[in-house]
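REQUEST FORM: STRUCTURE PREDICTION
Request ID: SP-0412
Submitted by: Lab K.M.
Chain count: 1
Length (residues): 306
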Amino acid sequence: MRYSSDNTVVTDRMIKTEQSRPVKKRVRKAVRRTFYLLLFILLFAVVNRSDFMNVRNIKIIAGDGINPVEVNNRFNLQDYAGMNLLWVPYGMIEWLLDSHPEIASSRVVPWPPGEITITLTHEEPDIYMIRPWGYYVLGKNSQFIETLPPYGEVADIPIKLSDEHMLFDESGHPLPDPWRQMLAKDEIDNRNLMLALGFRDLLTLRDIVRSQQGIPNVQYVGYHERYGLMLKCEREPLILIGYGEDLMIHFTRALKILSDTDFPFGEDKYVDIRFEEYQCVVDIDKLEGFSTKPQNTDSNKNDDLP
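STATUS: Completed
RESULT:
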Protein backbone atom coordinates (compact mmCIF):
# COMPACT_ATOMS: atom_id res chain seq x y z
CA MET A 1 0.00 0.00 0.00
CA ARG A 2 2.81 2.36 0.86
CA TYR A 3 4.61 1.60 -2.36
CA SER A 4 1.42 2.20 -4.29
CA SER A 5 0.95 5.56 -2.57
CA ASP A 6 4.47 6.71 -3.43
CA ASN A 7 3.99 5.63 -7.03
CA THR A 8 0.85 7.75 -7.29
CA VAL A 9 2.70 10.84 -6.04
CA VAL A 10 5.45 10.35 -8.58
CA THR A 11 2.92 9.92 -11.33
CA ASP A 12 1.13 13.15 -10.36
CA ARG A 13 4.41 15.07 -10.43
CA MET A 14 5.21 13.75 -13.89
CA ILE A 15 1.80 14.81 -15.17
CA LYS A 16 2.22 18.32 -13.75
CA THR A 17 5.70 18.57 -15.27
CA GLU A 18 4.44 17.53 -18.71
CA GLN A 19 1.58 20.05 -18.46
CA SER A 20 3.95 22.87 -17.55
CA ARG A 21 6.31 22.26 -20.48
CA PRO A 22 4.08 23.84 -23.23
CA VAL A 23 3.71 26.93 -21.08
CA LYS A 24 7.45 27.25 -20.60
CA LYS A 25 8.00 26.70 -24.33
CA ARG A 26 5.55 29.46 -25.23
CA VAL A 27 7.22 31.81 -22.76
CA ARG A 28 10.65 31.11 -24.27
CA LYS A 29 9.31 31.75 -27.80
CA ALA A 30 7.72 35.00 -26.69
CA VAL A 31 10.97 36.12 -25.09
CA ARG A 32 12.95 35.28 -28.22
CA ARG A 33 10.50 37.12 -30.48
CA THR A 34 10.58 40.16 -28.24
CA PHE A 35 14.38 40.09 -28.28
CA TYR A 36 14.53 39.82 -32.08
CA LEU A 37 11.97 42.58 -32.49
CA LEU A 38 13.91 44.91 -30.20
CA LEU A 39 17.13 44.02 -32.04
CA PHE A 40 15.49 44.73 -35.41
CA ILE A 41 14.16 48.08 -34.19
CA LEU A 42 17.61 48.98 -32.87
CA LEU A 43 19.33 48.02 -36.13
CA PHE A 44 16.71 49.83 -38.21
CA ALA A 45 17.14 52.99 -36.13
CA VAL A 46 20.91 52.82 -36.50
CA VAL A 47 20.74 52.20 -40.27
CA ASN A 48 18.04 54.83 -40.80
CA ARG A 49 20.09 57.52 -39.01
CA SER A 50 23.50 56.46 -40.23
CA ASP A 51 25.34 58.69 -42.70
CA PHE A 52 26.75 55.50 -44.18
CA MET A 53 23.32 54.78 -45.72
CA ASN A 54 22.77 58.24 -47.20
CA VAL A 55 23.01 58.77 -50.96
CA ARG A 56 26.27 60.62 -51.61
CA ASN A 57 26.48 60.14 -55.38
CA ILE A 58 24.23 59.28 -58.32
CA LYS A 59 26.00 57.60 -61.23
CA ILE A 60 24.35 57.40 -64.66
CA ILE A 61 25.62 54.82 -67.16
CA ALA A 62 24.13 55.52 -70.60
CA GLY A 63 24.83 54.16 -74.06
CA ASP A 64 25.25 56.14 -77.24
CA GLY A 65 22.36 58.47 -77.99
CA ILE A 66 21.55 59.37 -74.37
CA ASN A 67 22.94 62.47 -72.69
CA PRO A 68 23.35 61.71 -68.94
CA VAL A 69 23.41 65.42 -68.05
CA GLU A 70 20.13 66.00 -69.88
CA VAL A 71 18.52 63.01 -68.17
CA ASN A 72 19.77 64.16 -64.78
CA ASN A 73 18.40 67.67 -65.28
CA ARG A 74 15.09 66.54 -66.74
CA PHE A 75 14.24 64.17 -63.89
CA ASN A 76 15.99 66.11 -61.08
CA LEU A 77 17.87 63.00 -60.01
CA GLN A 78 20.24 64.97 -57.78
CA ASP A 79 17.28 65.72 -55.51
CA TYR A 80 17.74 62.19 -54.14
CA ALA A 81 21.24 63.02 -52.89
CA GLY A 82 21.30 62.96 -49.10
CA MET A 83 18.25 60.69 -48.89
CA ASN A 84 18.56 57.42 -47.03
CA LEU A 85 18.88 54.47 -49.40
CA LEU A 86 15.99 52.75 -47.64
CA TRP A 87 13.56 55.46 -48.68
CA VAL A 88 14.56 56.05 -52.31
CA PRO A 89 11.57 55.20 -54.60
CA TYR A 90 13.49 52.98 -57.02
CA GLY A 91 10.41 51.69 -58.83
CA MET A 92 9.06 55.20 -59.45
CA ILE A 93 12.44 56.39 -60.77
CA GLU A 94 12.56 53.50 -63.26
CA TRP A 95 8.98 54.18 -64.33
CA LEU A 96 9.74 57.87 -64.95
CA LEU A 97 12.94 57.09 -66.87
CA ASP A 98 11.19 54.50 -69.03
CA SER A 99 8.66 57.18 -70.02
CA HIS A 100 11.43 59.11 -71.78
CA PRO A 101 11.04 58.45 -75.52
CA GLU A 102 14.76 57.86 -76.07
CA ILE A 103 15.13 55.37 -73.20
CA ALA A 104 14.19 51.76 -73.92
CA SER A 105 14.79 50.50 -70.39
CA SER A 106 16.38 51.56 -67.11
CA ARG A 107 17.81 49.83 -64.06
CA VAL A 108 18.31 51.57 -60.70
CA VAL A 109 20.58 49.80 -58.17
CA PRO A 110 21.66 51.08 -54.72
CA TRP A 111 25.24 49.90 -55.01
CA PRO A 112 27.97 50.46 -53.96
CA PRO A 113 26.95 51.75 -50.50
CA GLY A 114 26.18 55.43 -50.55
CA GLU A 115 25.73 55.46 -54.35
CA ILE A 116 22.84 54.88 -56.75
CA THR A 117 23.83 53.45 -60.13
CA ILE A 118 21.38 54.08 -62.98
CA THR A 119 21.89 52.12 -66.20
CA LEU A 120 20.02 53.33 -69.29
CA THR A 121 19.48 51.58 -72.62
CA HIS A 122 18.88 53.69 -75.70
CA GLU A 123 15.64 53.25 -77.66
CA GLU A 124 16.69 52.29 -81.17
CA PRO A 125 14.71 53.75 -84.09
CA ASP A 126 12.72 51.02 -85.80
CA ILE A 127 9.76 52.65 -87.58
CA TYR A 128 9.71 55.74 -89.80
CA MET A 129 6.20 57.03 -90.34
CA ILE A 130 5.64 59.44 -93.22
CA ARG A 131 3.91 62.71 -92.46
CA PRO A 132 3.33 65.69 -94.82
CA TRP A 133 6.11 67.63 -93.07
CA GLY A 134 8.58 64.79 -92.45
CA TYR A 135 8.67 61.62 -90.38
CA TYR A 136 7.70 60.31 -87.00
CA VAL A 137 10.51 58.11 -85.67
CA LEU A 138 9.23 55.24 -83.51
CA GLY A 139 11.02 52.59 -81.45
CA LYS A 140 10.68 48.82 -81.55
CA ASN A 141 7.55 48.98 -79.41
CA SER A 142 6.07 51.75 -81.62
CA GLN A 143 6.79 54.39 -78.98
CA PHE A 144 7.38 57.87 -80.38
CA ILE A 145 11.05 58.98 -80.23
CA GLU A 146 11.41 62.13 -82.33
CA THR A 147 10.52 63.81 -85.62
CA LEU A 148 12.66 64.14 -88.73
CA PRO A 149 12.40 66.67 -91.55
CA PRO A 150 11.44 65.33 -95.00
CA TYR A 151 15.08 65.38 -96.06
CA GLY A 152 16.14 63.44 -92.95
CA GLU A 153 17.96 60.12 -93.30
CA VAL A 154 15.60 57.15 -93.18
CA ALA A 155 17.26 53.81 -92.48
CA ASP A 156 14.30 51.56 -93.22
CA ILE A 157 11.15 51.20 -95.30
CA PRO A 158 8.81 54.05 -94.27
CA ILE A 159 5.19 53.40 -93.39
CA LYS A 160 2.03 55.46 -93.88
CA LEU A 161 -0.94 55.36 -91.52
CA SER A 162 -4.21 57.12 -92.30
CA ASP A 163 -4.80 58.12 -88.67
CA GLU A 164 -1.98 58.16 -86.13
CA HIS A 165 -4.09 59.20 -83.10
CA MET A 166 -3.87 55.62 -81.79
CA LEU A 167 -0.15 56.19 -81.18
CA PHE A 168 -0.93 58.62 -78.36
CA ASP A 169 -3.12 58.66 -75.26
CA GLU A 170 -5.76 61.27 -74.48
CA SER A 171 -3.11 63.58 -73.01
CA GLY A 172 -1.00 63.38 -76.16
CA HIS A 173 1.67 61.15 -74.61
CA PRO A 174 3.10 58.36 -76.82
CA LEU A 175 1.93 54.82 -76.08
CA PRO A 176 4.23 51.78 -76.13
CA ASP A 177 2.72 48.97 -78.18
CA PRO A 178 -0.31 51.12 -79.05
CA TRP A 179 -2.21 48.53 -81.07
CA ARG A 180 -1.92 46.02 -78.23
CA GLN A 181 -3.07 48.59 -75.69
CA MET A 182 -6.01 49.50 -77.86
CA LEU A 183 -7.06 45.88 -78.34
CA ALA A 184 -6.74 45.30 -74.57
CA LYS A 185 -9.42 47.87 -73.78
CA ASP A 186 -12.67 46.55 -72.34
CA GLU A 187 -14.64 48.58 -74.87
CA ILE A 188 -13.44 49.49 -78.34
CA ASP A 189 -15.43 50.80 -81.28
CA ASN A 190 -15.15 49.36 -84.77
CA ARG A 191 -13.04 52.20 -86.14
CA ASN A 192 -10.36 51.95 -83.45
CA LEU A 193 -10.48 48.18 -83.72
CA MET A 194 -9.73 48.38 -87.45
CA LEU A 195 -6.96 50.93 -86.87
CA ALA A 196 -5.31 48.71 -84.27
CA LEU A 197 -5.51 45.60 -86.43
CA GLY A 198 -4.43 47.59 -89.48
CA PHE A 199 -1.35 48.95 -87.71
CA ARG A 200 -0.45 45.42 -86.62
CA ASP A 201 -0.85 44.09 -90.18
CA LEU A 202 1.08 47.07 -91.56
CA LEU A 203 4.12 46.19 -89.43
CA THR A 204 3.79 42.59 -90.60
CA LEU A 205 3.69 43.73 -94.24
CA ARG A 206 6.77 45.87 -93.72
CA ASP A 207 8.67 42.89 -92.29
CA ILE A 208 7.60 40.78 -95.27
CA VAL A 209 8.78 43.44 -97.73
CA ARG A 210 12.07 43.67 -95.80
CA SER A 211 12.70 39.97 -96.29
CA GLN A 212 12.10 39.96 -100.06
CA GLN A 213 14.76 40.31 -102.70
CA GLY A 214 14.47 42.10 -106.02
CA ILE A 215 11.58 44.44 -105.17
CA PRO A 216 11.92 47.86 -106.88
CA ASN A 217 12.76 50.79 -104.60
CA VAL A 218 9.97 50.80 -102.03
CA GLN A 219 8.65 54.27 -101.21
CA TYR A 220 6.41 53.07 -98.40
CA VAL A 221 3.97 50.49 -97.16
CA GLY A 222 0.72 51.94 -95.88
CA TYR A 223 -2.61 51.33 -94.21
CA HIS A 224 -5.82 53.21 -94.81
CA GLU A 225 -8.94 52.34 -92.83
CA ARG A 226 -11.02 52.40 -96.02
CA TYR A 227 -8.69 50.55 -98.42
CA GLY A 228 -6.56 48.44 -96.09
CA LEU A 229 -2.89 47.68 -96.75
CA MET A 230 -1.05 49.19 -99.69
CA LEU A 231 2.39 49.07 -101.29
CA LYS A 232 4.10 51.85 -103.28
CA CYS A 233 7.36 51.54 -105.21
CA GLU A 234 9.12 54.24 -107.23
CA ARG A 235 7.74 54.74 -110.74
CA GLU A 236 5.21 51.97 -110.09
CA PRO A 237 1.45 52.16 -109.47
CA LEU A 238 0.08 52.15 -105.94
CA ILE A 239 -1.10 48.60 -105.16
CA LEU A 240 -4.08 48.10 -102.85
CA ILE A 241 -3.50 44.81 -101.04
CA GLY A 242 -6.43 44.85 -98.67
CA TYR A 243 -6.50 43.54 -95.11
CA GLY A 244 -4.38 41.10 -93.13
CA GLU A 245 -6.34 38.01 -94.03
CA ASP A 246 -4.60 36.12 -96.88
CA LEU A 247 -1.86 38.74 -96.78
CA MET A 248 0.79 36.50 -98.35
CA ILE A 249 -1.52 35.55 -101.23
CA HIS A 250 -2.19 39.18 -102.09
CA PHE A 251 1.44 40.15 -101.59
CA THR A 252 2.53 37.43 -104.02
CA ARG A 253 0.13 38.85 -106.61
CA ALA A 254 1.60 42.31 -106.01
CA LEU A 255 5.11 40.96 -106.64
CA LYS A 256 3.99 39.55 -109.98
CA ILE A 257 2.77 42.99 -111.03
CA LEU A 258 5.96 44.71 -109.86
CA SER A 259 8.19 42.16 -111.59
CA ASP A 260 6.30 42.31 -114.90
CA THR A 261 8.47 44.45 -117.18
CA ASP A 262 5.63 44.61 -119.73
CA PHE A 263 3.17 46.11 -117.23
CA PRO A 264 2.24 49.35 -119.06
CA PHE A 265 1.09 51.50 -116.12
CA GLY A 266 3.13 53.93 -114.02
CA GLU A 267 2.84 55.77 -110.73
CA ASP A 268 -0.18 57.79 -111.89
CA LYS A 269 -2.32 54.64 -111.48
CA TYR A 270 -3.42 52.36 -108.69
CA VAL A 271 -4.03 48.62 -108.95
CA ASP A 272 -6.77 47.06 -106.84
CA ILE A 273 -6.01 43.42 -106.01
CA ARG A 274 -7.98 43.25 -102.75
CA PHE A 275 -10.44 40.72 -104.14
CA GLU A 276 -9.31 37.50 -105.75
CA GLU A 277 -11.90 37.70 -108.50
CA TYR A 278 -11.44 41.40 -109.13
CA GLN A 279 -8.45 43.42 -110.33
CA CYS A 280 -8.43 46.84 -111.95
CA VAL A 281 -6.11 49.66 -112.91
CA VAL A 282 -7.48 53.17 -112.32
CA ASP A 283 -6.12 56.73 -112.33
CA ILE A 284 -4.83 57.40 -108.84
CA ASP A 285 -6.62 60.76 -108.72
CA LYS A 286 -9.86 58.82 -108.79
CA LEU A 287 -8.98 57.06 -105.56
CA GLU A 288 -11.32 58.82 -103.16
CA GLY A 289 -9.55 60.36 -100.19
CA PHE A 290 -6.12 59.99 -101.75
CA SER A 291 -4.08 62.82 -103.22
CA THR A 292 -0.69 62.81 -104.93
CA LYS A 293 -0.36 66.56 -104.47
CA PRO A 294 1.60 67.91 -101.48
CA GLN A 295 -0.26 70.07 -98.98
CA ASN A 296 2.21 72.95 -99.29
CA THR A 297 4.56 74.45 -101.82
CA ASP A 298 7.69 72.77 -100.45
CA SER A 299 8.49 70.14 -103.06
CA ASN A 300 10.66 68.21 -100.59
CA LYS A 301 7.75 67.42 -98.31
CA ASN A 302 5.94 64.12 -98.50
CA ASP A 303 2.44 63.75 -99.77
CA ASP A 304 -0.33 63.69 -97.25
CA LEU A 305 -1.58 60.36 -95.98
CA PRO A 306 -4.42 58.80 -97.91
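NOTES: Residues 53-122 form a domain with the Ubiquitin-like (UB roll) fold (CATH 3.10.20).
Reviewed by: T.R.
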